[in-house]
Beta-glucuronidase
Amino acid sequence: MINIYGRSGTSLNGKWETIIDPFDVGIGWRAIYKDARPKGKTDFVEYSFGPANTLYVPGDFNSQLPELTYFESSVWYKKTFNCPGSKDGRFFIHFGAVNYIADVYFNGKKLGHHEGGFTPFQFEVTDLIKETGNSLIVRANSARVKNGIPGSLFDWFNYGGITRDVQLIKTRQIFVEDYKIQLDPKDNSRITGYVKLDTTLAGKLISLSIPELKVNQKLVTDEKGYAGVNLKKGLKLWTPEQPKLYDIRLNVEGDTVADRIGFRNIKVEGTKILLNGKPVFLRGVNIHEEIPQRGARAWSESDAKTLIDWAKELGCNFVRLVHYPHNEYAIKYAEEKGIMVWEEVPVYQGIDFADATVKDKAEQMLKEVIKRDRNRCNVILWSIANETSPSKERDQTLIELAKEVKMLDPGRLVTAAFNNVNRQGDKMILKDSVMKYLDVIGVNEYMGWYTDWPGEPEKMQWVSDFNKPMIISEFGGESVYGNKADTVIKASAWSEDYVANIYHNQIKMFGTIPFLQGVCPWVLADFRSPYRMQSTYQKGWNRKGLLSDQGEKKKAWYIMKAYYDGLKDGSH
Ligand code: GCU
């Protein structure tokens, strides 16, 4: 079901009892999910949950215990809870995310399995739940998987565990399972969409109310349990400057879902991106779902506030949330703050495209995140991949994923980030065959860092036959806050001055690209990455942040802010 935060639920967050299972034997012969106890005098059990070993949920397990810092295997979690009055209504256990694999057991019964560390899943427990002594057991395994999404190598910290909210959701016998209430892409004064019940009963009455628009409508379901929404209303459209949201309530036979929804239109026209019919330039920044000061996975409302407020302060109207779907708090807070969002599934660099299961997994993740955020008007772009190398299998997979996204959500734009621009002298030629299937092309280029400038930045020539908007989805370089060049400005000094030059040059180049509709510096803040091993400056951190790991502003921050302020007041 979507929008669990708009429903009645009980949080199962807090301290959970845990068992650390490095050899991952608990799912096999040890059968930890049985939570067995010794019987009789001769019996013994070589594992046990208890108050002595606990971890916080939500929260990655790596940052909670030093011995778990680089742990990538199974941790078993147990939560016991009571549920008074459990006989009226239906009950679901909802997970915001578990990285990477979750096996879930409830009152001794296996509920199911989920693969993918960044999207929600749930299980119904109506027939299993008791008034008292309910036992929920989760195996969270964060081992990297060759045919996984992401694959076995990625440039971020592999935070494992139950990383987002766990909730017990209570509904009536029938409930609103899914809905889409959005602006009609062809008519800025028409709200269209559907409401879908969890059942295929026809003739069910659903009430839709939007108090501010004086909407109190009765919708009737068809034989598939769907009811259409079609309203003609004068609307205040959502924009970054005025992020207007409307309170919405849906009710079916006493089961209520509440939401705050904005209405906007996003499309491409030639090389332009149009928001509500007007060209918009995306002033962006890349954000990893990590609070650097804590060295931990971000998960809460206040974490979302920390990251998005930084982006706002930088002058952004757009963020690229990388390289995986971030938590709902971040999306919703960005929506409240007028920040447009690029969401991405972690089809990242070395994916095993030859493995037939990979496309299905990617599709599953896309379906899960598109369903979760389909009513978030600030989400404008679905990204299906980042820096994948062309091959027959890769091209085919990405083309099919692009078509899948357009089928699942025709009202948004599909994109991907490429790092294989063809360089000929100072010509940068877009040529990847997958680009044809996208609405917007993302390009990651690190001129001045990984690659030299082939010529004067302002003389660079970007060439594209695709007649599509391009976003420079990554650029930048590494520096350590406070590292000022003494005499020679050189890369290996990890100096702020060296990176400042990169930013000045990039900005000079931006002005020369006719089809450029947005830029996104890599990256908002320094972030943890185990393969960044330069022992003086990196120490397990990617140092390309505009902010240090303590949130200190580097020189590049001020350069980017001045550039964005200039774009905002039209002086750039
Ligand atoms: C890549 C990649 C990022 C990575 C960055 C870097 O382009 O997309 O995930 O962190 O470059 O090398 O710093």
Notes: The domain at 4-171 is CATH 2.60.120.260 (Jelly Rolls). Residues 445 and 515 are 16 Å apart (CA to CA). Residues 356-373 form the longest helix (18 residues). The two ends are 45 Å apart (CA to CA).
